Amino acid sequence: MSETYEQMWSELGLDLEAHDALLQVLGKGYQDIYMSQSGRAAGMEYFNFVMSEVHGLRVKELLDGKKEGRKVIGSFCVFVPEEIVRAADAVLVGLCTGADFAMEEVEKLLPRNTCSLIKSAFGFKLGKVCPYMESADLIVGENTCDGKKKAYETLDKLVPNLYVMDLPQTKSPEGRALLKAEYERFKKAVEKLTGVEIDGARLKRGIEIVNNKRKAVHRLAQLRKADPVPISGLDALLVNQVYFYDDPIRFTDSVNKICDELEERAATVNGAFPENTPRILLSGCPMAVPNWKLPWIVETSGAAIVGEESCVGERGTRNLTDASAATVDGLMDAIVDRHFLVDCAIFTPNPDRLNHVKEMKDAYGADGVIHYGLQFCQPYQMESIPVEADLENHGIPTLRIDTDYGMEDVEQLKTRVEAFIETLR
Ligand code: BJ8
Fold it and tell me: Which listed CATH number (3.50.50.60, 3.40.50.880, 3.40.50.720, 3.40.50.11890) goes with 2-204?
């Protein structure tokens, strides 16, 4: 652990001992899961570096930016519109939610039957190990699932700077009107925080930066249609995870460089897995760093993951924001329209998500779908039953996995995943 960072972490109020232990576990997990893969693209070196500096250099960059007056906004959901944040020269970062930490403390504040993602956010705060949360000038929560909605009432007592965005639950005109009103309110909050008035030119620039990031991950996704698939699902997931906290312009360049390399590999039939490896589409709850358990099980059990129907994946990034409007109001409408298409399971009814799963299955040539639900996640677990039934009715082999961030069920999951993959061969 570098001394420079130690001082930085200490000034952020982190618990150095606990944080050091976390980084050791993270580093070992990355070595075991990522560095053991063979035939990775050379461009993944950048992402190895990003991960090795996940709480170091990137946090330093944010803090250096803060000294120059650039605000940091933390979020837990893809409904927080990055375009508006970028338009005010602020930075949006996804907050740590991918690992268990300080669970004893967490369960004093939240019921045990709360999903791992929510518990993780609390664990990182209570354990004082998330430099992103401690760097944030504003933390944005959102009224999505009941778990998050109620948990923010408690989080509000732990942090001084929580802002809660209300979100619709139906794709109705009233729902859209609520989203528009909430994005207008958020724009004002960002303007107040940053002291920047967001005009049309700024908003267009914000949209352009975020769209470019999305276009780069679309390009990567297209390349995964090839057989043999040129990049592992683990590596593609990592790219989708880093999307949430890297500098967007540097991220876009790095992903495009990998795509250049993968295009060459595809031309020489040089895949991450042999040709005809069973192909899996993952669908369900988001997987934040370092939640790599299920993809690791799948890809060490003889299959390749070719797509993620997830907010850390295509559900979160698939649509672009139209930047053609001439007025601030028109651009705000475009941002609303773009986000209103996100088919999170908090919406009822939610037929678009099921259609998207089927579209992705066809587009990426998947042989089967694994539905990933976090235990105690009502929206996705509830939806997984009709999703599985519909996919099976359409002759699409589907495996429903409900799990958490613990490693106790790895062997049991591996047995089920291996048996499923066997049926796809
Ligand atoms: S838009 S998926 S990022 S809310 S896993 S906390 S749903 S109980 S994360 Fe999400 Fe936004 Fe929707 Fe996407 Fe609740 Fe389920 Fe936990 Fe979840």
Answer: 3.40.50.11890
